[in-house]
Amino acid sequence: MTESAKGPNIALWIIAALVAWGGYLAVGSYLHGRTMLWQRSAIVFGVVVLFAGFWLVMLAARRRRLAREEEE
Question: Exposed, middle or buried by CB within 10 Å (0-12, 13-18, 19+), for 41?
Fold first, then answer.
């Protein structure tokens, strides 16, 4: 196991902070607008969650690829 794999996974902390930031933006969008209150917030938070999910999928694919290359 590499040294970076033993410590806390910084990518997960960054993703958690990104989702928290997206929640903050969604609340701000909800409080600011006069029309489409919850819809605008849902769009903002949904885009942030989709981005974080895509990032997690790409990290998982990279992890699988590196594990496969290590076995060879």
Answer: buried
